[in-house]
TrEMBL record:
It comes from Trichoderma lentiforme. Keywords: Nucleotide metabolism. It comes from the Eukaryota. Residues 139-161 are annotated as: Disordered. The keyword Oxidoreductase does not apply. GO terms for molecular function: dCTP deaminase activity. The keyword Cytoplasm does not apply. This is Deoxyuridine 5'-triphosphate nucleotidohydrolase. GO terms for biological process: dUTP biosynthetic process. InterPro entries: dCTP_deaminase, dUTPase-like_sf.
Length: 161
């Protein structure tokens, strides 16, 4: 079952909204862009983690006058202003808004796992474009006891009926 944005906020799943009027949606909550980071080195991940090395990242700066950021084609780590606190029997997922999708933006790895209580992140891949800090949002949705389907976030409760 998908939850409404109002229900998600009322239950404290998504907090620290910049503007509830603009961010609450019928089937989720729009997340607002806080910062964008780029990878500056490769990571190393191996089977037993004996050679594991985290990739270095650097924050990209917004233009002070226009509050925009120019993104070249590629993948970026995106941090949102809102914090997420997902209950044990819920699962959340970040979807790109249709306006961003039509502009070449896609999100990957924008999931909110159980017991997660922190600022939300996702990996975003964009075609070359310019982004305005105050207007870019992604859709966060939360499901409770949902069955597997094509249209959105999927989760099954581990609680017994």
């Amino acid at each position: 079952m998908l939850m409404s944005g109002a229900s998600i906020v009322k239950q404290g799943i998504v907090r620290n909204l910049r503007s509830a009027t603009q961010q609450l949606q019928p089937c989720g909550v729009d997340l607002s862009l806080r910062r964008v980071l780029a990878w500056t080195s490769p990571a190393t991940i191996d089977f037993d983690n004996s050679h594991r090395q985290v990739a270095n990242i650097s924050e990209l700066r917004f233009n002070k006058d226009t509050e925009t950021i120019k993104l070249r084609q590629g993948a970026y780590l995106v941090e949102f202003n809102e914090t997420v606190s997902v209950p044990l029997n819920y699962m959340g997922q970040v979807f790109v808004r249709s306006s961003l999708w039509r502009s070449g933006g896609h999100t990957y790895g924008g999931r909110c796992g159980r017991r997660l209580r922190r600022r939300s992140w996702c990996i975003a891949r964009y075609k070359e474009s310019s982004w305005h800090r105050s207007s870019q949002r992604c859709q966060a949705r939360a499901d409770r006891d949902a069955s597997v389907g094509r249209q959105g976030c999927k989760a099954k409760s581990k609680e017994k009926s």
